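wait is this the right file?? whatever heres the structure
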């Protein structure tokens, strides 16, 4: 127990850039951490000292405004090999790791990802085409994971580029081509307008439901294995879904086919007026 408390004590020593530490307690030693015979009763914390009054400036008698209680995270710009800058939340502590288990910074992870992405797609159009199809999207994510870019790390990068309400597609497009992230809500709203033009009323009802799930949960809701649970959520019975949408092959085709409208570029997706 003495050694365990020494470990905890060293972990709690603060220094610049350290704001947490991790304890691996395989024997549940923390259950014995509180020992009144050894430690005595816990002491109440000292009250905070009274702030010293600031001298009044005759030229500026009003007191300083109180500081922002919730300051925005510091931002940092990363310029990659294409010369374009990406903005990330500045984080000293990171959960990115090299394949050998050594930690790396968000900048290093982004630089490595940027260097590897050309092996998977040659330009933004190909990325959109791959991501628009559930089957090729799954293969792309599997290939990235095999190169050391696991899903958890991609989700962390999504947070660092301030795209938590976006899509993993936006992480890839932003890192590869500095494309600004788009929220899932904006993408779904644009797709809904196209769905209204191209599908029947009953199909629209189902696809609108899928879009709402996508906005709420993320791109995983568009995976093929999610189709059956989505149908069960939307319809009382599979027979009702078949009545509205057609047989199972038609439903699968509908579910996979509509997704391309989510990832069309905005100009192409919204320009429907007659140029005359």
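ok assuming it is, sequence goes like this
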């Amino acid at each position: 127990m003495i050694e365990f408390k020494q470990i905890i004590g060293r972990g709690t020593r603060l220094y610049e850039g350290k704001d947490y530490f991790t304890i691996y307690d395989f024997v549940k030693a923390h259950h014995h951490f509180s020992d009144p015979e050894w430690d005595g009763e816990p002491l109440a914390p000292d009250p905070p000292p009274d702030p010293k009054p600031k001298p009044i400036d005759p030229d500026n008698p009003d007191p300083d405004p109180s500081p922002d209680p919730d300051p925005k995270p510091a931002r940092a710009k990363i310029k990659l090999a294409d010369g374009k800058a990406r903005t990330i939340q500045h984080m000293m502590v990171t959960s990115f790791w090299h394949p050998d288990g050594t930690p790396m910074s968000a900048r290093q992870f982004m630089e490595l990802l940027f260097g590897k992405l050309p092996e998977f797609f040659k330009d933004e159009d190909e990325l959109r085409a791959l991501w628009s199809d559930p089957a090729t999207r799954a293969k792309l994510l599997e290939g990235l994971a095999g190169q050391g870019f696991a899903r958890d790390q991609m989700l962390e990068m999504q947070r660092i580029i301030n795209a938590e309400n976006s899509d993993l597609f936006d992480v890839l497009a932003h890192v590869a081509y500095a494309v600004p992230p788009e929220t899932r809500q904006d993408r779904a709203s644009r797709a809904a307008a196209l769905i209204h033009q191209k599908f029947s009323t009953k199909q629209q009802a189902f696809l609108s439901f899928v879009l709402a799930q996508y906005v709420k949960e993320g791109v995983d809701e568009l995976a093929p294995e999610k189709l059956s649970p989505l149908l069960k959520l939307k319809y009382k019975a599979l027979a009702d879904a078949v009545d509205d949408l057609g047989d199972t092959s038609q439903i699968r085709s509908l579910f996979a086919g509509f997704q391309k409208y989510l990832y069309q570029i905005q100009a192409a997706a919204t320009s429907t007026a007659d140029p005359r």
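The chain has three domains: 2-36, 75-177, 184-270. so i think its the right one actually
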